[in-house]
Write the structure tokens for this entry.
Amino acid sequence: MNKKKLTIARNKIDQLDKRIFNLIKKRTKIVKYILSLKDFKKQIVDKKRINLILKDIRKKSIKHSLDPKITNRIWMAIIRGYIDFEKKNFKKK
């Protein structure tokens, strides 16, 4: 194993992680706004929208030679995380 190459590759991952973190921060801000627009807790889960998102991610994954199972798992984790976030932070108007 080449430790120097490994360190360089891990530094690249660290830089990407910083960018991902900032995107999650922006996404959370938008999710909070969207949550403020919802009147009922049952509006939090939109199965039709979730299916469209996952279908789109699958198409993009195949087009860009990514494993659709991995991208699906990642997006499902994001979706579930924000569903939990919305349910915990929902306040009736």
Remarks:
- The chain has a mean pLDDT of 96.
- Helices lie at 3-37, 47-63, 68-89.
- The chain has one domain: 3-89.
- DSSP finds three helices and no strands in the chain.
